[in-house]
Amino acid sequence: MIELNGASQMTSSTPAVSLAGARLAYGDRVLWDGLDLDVAPGEFVAVLGPNGSGKTSLMRVLLGQQKLTAGTVRIAGAAPGRGNRSIGYIPQQKAIDPTVAVRGRDLVGLGYDGHRWGLGFSDMRERRRQVDRVLEAVGATGYANRPVGLLSGGEQQRLRVAQALVGDPTVLLCDEPLLSLDLAHQRAVSALIDAHRRESGSAVLFVTHEINPVLPLVDRVVYLVDGRFRVGPPEQVMTSATLSELYGTEIAVVRVRGQIHIVGAHSDLCEDGSHHADELVEH
After folding, report:
1. Which end of the chain is more exposed for a tag (fewer CB within 10 A), N or C?
2. How many C-beta atoms lie closer than 10 Å to residue 216's C-beta?
3. How far is the C-alpha of 123 from the C-alpha of 9, rounded, in Å?
């Protein structure tokens, strides 16, 4: 089992995220057990695995929406819970009803307002400044005053990224932020998240179906499968030997033009669709 302790690589004595002996189970079904993970400030960690492996459940634990069955968890120096301004969250993309008239900048502003009550005049000026700053950073200024329901999926997702960043979080939790986006938008959203963590030193936990859009950005991978897991750099985890051991069946990891493709007997190995050997020959 590849187990790397991020604490040995950190420059700070306090991890941005820390799980020790973490176990999550629903009755007899164990999603993961004995998970030890320290994520350093500024580190980009991708969380991978098939459907039902506990990726989104890990996000819920870190957000304080789900309690561990055993073990301990700390995030941004505190126990998980609501109202921690140090945590930014990008949820899975869901279509917004076209009749929703909320403007893009108002949606982003909710990320600033969520931890404040009764904003005064000076606070409102700062709010506008911060909202304008992140809108420009994500390239959304041009449609910031349009109703979000009339925007494309890629435009809406840029606004969700801006909403998560407007509070300048020290930990950014991303739950399938690339889902339903085309390749160009996947790369754009990934680059925005990476640019923020490099500029601010924030830690990123990035749940994704497909590692290729973020592969150049990732420091480590957490791969979850049927109660088992591996933690380590992509070049150690994303190998035929490691994934074959995890899945309990023969898996081939093929690298083509800097991308990783998984060839296996089960279609759920890559949740964006199975990759077959005959398809890879064409690359």
Report:
1. C
2. 12
3. 38
Q: How far apart are CA 114 and CA 1, in angstroms?
A: 41
Three-state DSSP string of 138-201: CCCHHHCCCEHHHCCHHHHHHHHHHHHHCCCCCEEEEECCCCCCCHHHHHHHHHHHHHHHHHHC
Neighbour-count burial of 192, counting CB atoms closer than 10 A to its CB (0-12 exposed, 13-18 middle, 19+ buried): buried
Give pLDDT tens digits for 130-144: 999 999 988 899 999
pLDDT, tens only, 180-223: 778 888 888 898 899 989 999 999 999 998 889 999 999 999 99
Tokens of residue 178, six digits = 């690339």
- Answer yes or no: is 33 within a domain: yes
Confidence of residue 105 (pLDDT cuts 50, 70, 90): very high
Whether the pTM exceeds 0.90: the reply is: no
Instruction: Count the domains in the chain.
Output: 1
Q: Examine residue 145 and state whether it is found in any structural domain, yes or no.
A: yes
How far apart CA 19 and CA 255 sit, in angstroms, is 31
Say if residue 34's pLDDT is above 90. Answer: yes
Confidence label for 146 from pLDDT (cuts 50, 70 and 90):
very high
Residue 252 lies in a domain: no
Domain encompassing residue 153: 6-236
Residue pair 232/2 in contact (Cβ under 8 Å)? The answer is yes
In whole angstroms, give the CA distance from residue 237 to residue 229: 10
Domain-located, residue 32: yes
| Residue 110's CATH number | 3.40.50.300
